[in-house]
Specification:
It is built from 6 helices and 6 strands; from the N terminus they run E-E-H-E-H-H-E-E-H-H-H-E. The chain is α+β, with helices and mostly antiparallel strands and about 120 residues long. It has one domain. The strands form 3 sheets. A two-stranded antiparallel sheet has the order 1-2. A two-stranded parallel sheet has the order 3-6. A hairpin with a 2-residue loop joins strand 1 and strand 2. Helix 2 crosses helix 6 and helix 4 crosses helix 5.
């Protein structure tokens, strides 16, 4: 049989078909790592502010209301920055789950499966 003008055995043809249909477990894990990194880098201070404001009550003083994120940012910027970094790192489990789901959907759309060895 000839593919692209090159004679090939049935075994070689089968391998080419498998290469198009399957990816290795290592390739899947690399895709997940890349997606995690992308999602991690998309986390912003706005996301952290939303987290703080959902977890803690606003505070009022002299007729003015302050959100927890405003207070922390304005009163102790170093604590805000450290908290932001810790919060991002704490989001990794959720991001991993999200990345796994996204990669699984991508593979399904591509018509590929993971070949576990």
């Amino acid at each position: 049989m000839h593919i692209n003008g090159t004679p090939q055995t049935l075994v070689e043809e089968k391998k080419q078909e498998d290469d198009k249909k399957y990816i290795t477990e290592e390739e899947e894990q690399e895709r997940i790592r890349e997606k995690e990194e992308e999602l991690y880098n998309e986390l912003s201070e706005d996301d952290y502010d939303q987290f703080l404001n959902e977890c803690y009550d606003s505070w009022s003083y002299a007729g003015r209301s302050f959100t927890p994120s405003e207070l922390l940012y304005g009163c102790d910027r170093q604590a805000y920055d450290e908290g932001f970094t810790e919060w991002k790192d704490g989001e990794m489990e959720r991001l991993n789950e999200q990345a796994c789901e996204m990669v699984a959907e991508e593979l399904e759309e591509e018509g590929k499966e993971v070949k576990y060895e």
